[in-house]
């Protein structure tokens, strides 16, 4: 489009009082751009002024006012490029004049004086002007073979509930179940914990009613005795191949670099360069691996509700508890089978089990830990099964030994009802040993609530083992993605699907595939039903957004997608390997093959590309690079003691909001810092840092989300990849004869706004201690 520029500077919210607006206006005027001011651009008159200029042909607006995180819809104009220059929170509110005094008229006459806050605001306006020159208006990505059908993998209570919810919303749904029947584990239980008021007693299984609703709905197709052989394509255009369990179907398969080839002999992860060298060698001569199945069925989104399996203890794993040695020591899953068949009897001889001990912790070296994959569900199951004993035998007794008793929400009413039963004994304690004693068992427990050791005689012992997600044993989804058929293991979820628990429940690393139920965490049936509704809604949201050509999350509504200049592609595979979401495959020649609807718009591929051939319409290497270069770096030619210049590249998801909140709370940081929001630290291309330092900036820092075991990165791997790249930049700094300490990366959570000034000021102080950049003035 032919751009017609307009610069607009708001003077409200204290901006006009704190800054020299006339000097601000001179910045665009010196570039020949028209500039207007108004005391309230977000008000009715201000908006009308903007709309009038737009009607007169202005289509590229630089709006210097409040943060882009506020008044978002107010300043969104169709067909226009709008850059929000944050001079309210980013300059005025975070740099009050009582801490950064403005120059007096007499001081202004001295050319060696400078007003740090004024310089800051003027730089931000220059940066906004530079950006709009380099960006384009996005155009939506539209698919030719768009499908609105939803695939639900799993016919248990979660999958059935998700299918019914989606079908009621008007969508065509196909349910795939590997068994010959529907209902999953819910169809095998004797009774279930309450799902409604008053939450104080067991209820008959509700699964059959759900199955009936599923089978009666005209929008739902059921495929039992069927599994997913492969999912290829992208949201809105998934091609799914089905097969029977055990059936062999030959596909060309992805060839990701095996995990063992990504580490050195000590198990430490190798640097990016070495990994890519190994990747290229490993994939030498591979053919086109990701062809579509012409006979596959089309779907728009997938709900993964594959469920769980009971934990199977290894031989000798719970020897102290008698498991594997004593036939009357069983898991809770086995006990449920026995109870479903009638009054509970001992497996060893078929005699009534009138006295049963339920153990919730393995004890021994595990200390106070529960069994693996256990949680609130296993607590509820122990209470439920204790009630079975009381129902089956008038003189039955149940003993529950636990380290943690979890009965969330209104299930506390059920817990209290169990406490009132005189035949059920509950105590916190560690079971030390289970041994045979004639015709029964003896259980020894220590550290109980009674303050003394306890010995109990029983007919059976039940171990509260957990629920292992189906994805721990099987990819289930069998993706035809370059990064492999399963969700990528990022070492945090112990086999659970990799949905982001912190920010985006249901959403996996594979866009358009939403996890629900026990593949996310152990859940009660009530929780699984609720979870199913959430996943179904996310699948619908995905379909609707994809059909409009916009992203679903976390940059909801973003119309951009990565554009490649393939003529300069070296096929290094960095973008395909580093993309956290598997948005890129390879074509037959090994060139990246984009799947735009899979893309989360994080820009990690852009940061990874050494040739800088990847960009987005409104976010690219050139746009950010131009902003960096537009910052005025004072030198000794300008002042006898020029101020320092430090560049901060800040994550828009955590760091940028934290900075805004710091400003709202009156917290200040150095006015020598210039901040540029980036989509994710993973999108940071090292050329921006090199450009900043080569033009004389004294230091560069990255401020973004936490990574590691407590990762909070919206794009999962972005901040971690940025750290790896920052370690590699040391070589480049050495070639420029600059200290490595001039570049640093910091972590921040969105609610740690009070720590932001400390982080920034600490880095600025360290840069001042190093002294000015020797490139300053060149």
UniProtKB/TrEMBL annotation:
Cofactor: FAD
SUPFAM superfamilies: 4Fe-4S ferredoxins, Nucleotide-binding domain
GO molecular function, one term: metal ion binding
Pfam name, any one: FlpD
Coiled coil: none
Record-linked Gene3D superfamilies: 3.30.70.20, NAD(P)-binding Rossmann-like Domain (3.40.50.720)
InterPro entries to which the protein is assigned, alphabetical: 4Fe4S_Fe-S-bd, 4Fe4S_Fe_S_CS, HdrA-like, MvhD/FlpD
Keywords of the record: FAD, Flavoprotein, Iron, Iron-sulfur, Metal-binding, Oxidoreductase
Keyword ATP-binding recorded: no
Domain 4Fe-4S ferredoxin-type residue range list: 560-589, 590-619
Family to which this protein belongs: Belongs to the HdrA family.
Protein name (record): Methyl-viologen-reducing hydrogenase delta subunit
